[in-house]
Write a structure and sequence with these properties.
It comes from Ammonifex degensii. By secondary structure, the chain is α+β, with helices and mostly antiparallel strands. It contains two helices and three strands, in the order αβββα. It is globular.
Length: about 60
């Protein structure tokens, strides 16, 4: 969850934006809680040091981390 990301990487998830259907309404989860599940196609807005954000990106894209 978000708390683990902050503790482990120093990354804070600010919001997650999801498009319900291609070109349709977008929804946003502001400051998602620790039980939030990321899914492919979402846009994640995060804050942290550049190296920590790069490590987070590798984790969520499955490229290691």
């Amino acid at each position: 969850g978000d708390l683990a990301l902050r503790k482990k990487l120093g990354v804070m998830i600010i919001a997650v934006i999801e498009e319900k259907e291609k070109g349709k309404k977008k929804t946003a989860a502001i400051n998602p809680g620790p039980g939030y599940v990321f899914t492919p196609g979402q846009t994640v807005i995060a804050a942290g040091r550049r190296d920590a954000l790069e490590q987070f990106e590798r984790m969520v894209t499955g490229e290691g981390g």
